[in-house]
Design goal:
Two copies of one chain form a homodimer.
Chain A: H1 3-10, H2 14-21, H3 30-42, H4 49-56, E1 61-67, H5 79-94, E2 98-104, H6 110-116, E3 121-125, H7 129-138, E4 143-146, E5 155-159, H8 161-174, E6 180-184, H9 192-206, E7 216-218, H10 223-234, E8 242-245, H11 248-260, E9 270-275, E10 288-292, H12 294-311, E11 317-321, E12 323-326
Parallel strand pairs in A: 1-2, 1-3, 3-4, 4-5, 5-11, 6-7, 6-8, 8-9, 9-10
Antiparallel strand pairs in A: 10-12
The structure holds a DNA duplex.
DNA sequence: CTGAAAGCGCTTACAG
DNA sequence: CTGAAAGCGCTTACAG
């Protein structure tokens, strides 16, 4: 069954059928519309999307790019990406578009991939500054980045990482903690981490404190590395009373590592995470975390993308979604003695 | 840049370029191949996938269908689906195919969707018996189901649900539990749940026990409902000492509900989950669970699908992946007094 | 409001 | 080994 068949059955031309399907109702009479629709329904006809895409140069496909670590990795390692992905799927589906997803180490390799499919737009998660130029230079469709810091004119949806770091440290300080540790990627990483570190430092500085070099624990933000980090922290300087972790998943690992080392959270040491995932409630004690509004991030990403697609012009914008402390029970109050 | 441009630059016909791109090396001389490839590389040419798909009637797209609950739901609610999805993405990507995903309430609505894109194959998660007929009746490409019970001749990858139920109950019995509860979807659901229930009952029967009606707690398998269920269980018959939950996420909720009610797991009550997700290690105590090998399920699904695609014929098969108890600390040993 | 013609960028037989 | 021709199933101006 194709357009021509339907046209023949309806006694009209393919053009007319095409106009009916595409809702160009100003070009077709009411009766013709009804007649054609009836035949379409009777025969369960669905237009061929590849032919449509080829002819119209639109695909209704949105390409979504997720970062991955190695060939054997999969994105489920990161509940954060998973959640965003699910939210985007929902949004894209409700727009009547299709979602094509791809994990990749370098966004460069993804460009030919999506060019090949004439995607109407792309959403790229966690790209770094260097990749951005390569991407926007060679892609003509609208792109929205999530969590990317770049000088270039791009549409980006991020969070207030500085404030996140600041709030985490302030929260711990307000609970009487003075010797605060850091756990996460190398503290000299630019962008996301750099800004959080700055926030932490500024909060500490207000109390004439600073991040002690001995209390900086660097590791990738996943569960397994978290366990190792937890063990290290357990045997580190005795004065440490709290740790700021750069992700919830890392924090889960840290809590486990501390537990395995015989320490109790929060009695012996407090932990605060970052992201505020639903999984924070799976742990005992529940993880206190700097919570970001993922629904809002996904919503904004979708809205900007479709606005660009509909208006056919790019938007340069940097939307910063607010963060807040979501309290669990993993931070204890130290009484000033 | 299109085929024709490349052909012109290389001084050959489009057919020849096409043959080079598609690796029909027996049809082109070595020198021509090199010449054409050089030009392709120089100009960063990528073939237009929609045109290819239209002409060849192959798309290299695999459609993946996930079940969802309501319009506002997203699949991240279920770490189980998320994990499978991530594993499938990895497999599909490594085959050089594209993955298009879709959440849906009824698989019926997904048929026109994927027909429209000429997908080369589909993987459908958690379809129920009634949907199967509708799907296989109206789709011509290879389909692999995951976790589906059906009489029809289909390719399905499942787990040994009966054994899972049996092992869970046996495990609890071996620890001295006699009053065992059930938590999960309605126990008269056919398929997955029905078989697990049967396994539980058979294990209990071996000890002249049975599932007590008072100890059956029905709810959808998600965290929030789990909390409510945990509270109910806490105030249920005093004799209950252990609960078998039909999913890990539900079990997490139950543990939380019990905790909120002042009960301690496993001291006051033991809990065993189902799935064996990595998240089992996030809880304190770690959740003991009937663990299924998700990597293997995804691998088998991928292998069967691509075998069907390559051999161009359907396979009827029901692969049952083994399950085993993955021990955490959420089940206590009751001393016979 | 309706349709004939051209074209989107490929691949598929087929002929040489 | 190479290429001319036809066709995949649509949409896009354009003419009426």
């Amino acid at each position: 069954m194709n357009l021509k068949d339907i046209a023949k059955l309806a006694g009209v031309s393919s053009v007319t059928v095409s106009n009916v399907i595409n809702g160009n109702h100003n070009k077709v009479s009411k009766e013709t519309i009804d007649k054609v629709n009836k035949i379409i329904k009777e025969h369960n006809y669905v237009p061929n999307a590849t032919a449509r895409s080829l002819a119209s140069k639109k695909s209704r496909i949105i390409g979504v790019v997720l970062p991955y670590v190695g060939m054997d990795e999969d994105f489920s390692r990161s509940p954060y990406y998973t959640r965003i992905l699910a939210l985007l799927e929902n949004y894209i589906r409700q727009q009547g578009y299709y979602m094509m997803i791809r994990c990749t180490g370098g966004c460069g390799e993804v460009i030919p991939l999506f060019n090949t499919w004439n995607v109407d737009g792309m959403i790229i998660l966690g790209a770094d500054k260097r990749e951005v130029k390569e991407i926007i230079g060679s892609i003509r469709v609208p792109v929205v980045f999530i969590d990317t810091y770049a000088e270039s004119k791009i549409a980006n949806i991020g969070i207030d990482d500085y404030k996140g770091g600041y709030l985490a440290a302030r929260y711990l300080l307000s609970k009487g903690h003075k010797h605060i540790g850091y756990a996460g990627p190398g503290i000299d990483s630019p962008g996301v981490i750099g800004n959080r570190i700055k926030g932490i430092n500024d909060a500490l500085a207000e109390k004439d404190l600073h991040l002690d070099k001995d209390l900086i624990f660097e590791a990738p933000t996943n569960y397994e590395d978290g366990i190792e980090l937890g063990k290290k922290i357990a045997f580190a300087s005795k004065k440490i009373t709290a740790v700021v972790s750069m992700s919830d998943v890392l924090a889960f690992g840290i809590m486990e590592g501390l537990h395995l080392s015989g320490l109790v959270v929060p009695d012996d040491i407090s932990v605060i995470g970052f992201d505020g995932l639903p999984e924070c409630r799976y742990t005992t004690p529940h993880l206190t975390s700097v919570s970001q509004n993922l629904s809002r991030k996904a919503l904004l990403a979708g809205e900007y993308l479709f606005k660009m697609i509909k208006d056919k012009k790019k938007i340069a914008v940097n939307e910063i979604v607010d963060v807040e402390i979501s309290e669990g029970e993993s931070v204890r109050t130290i009484r000033p003695n």
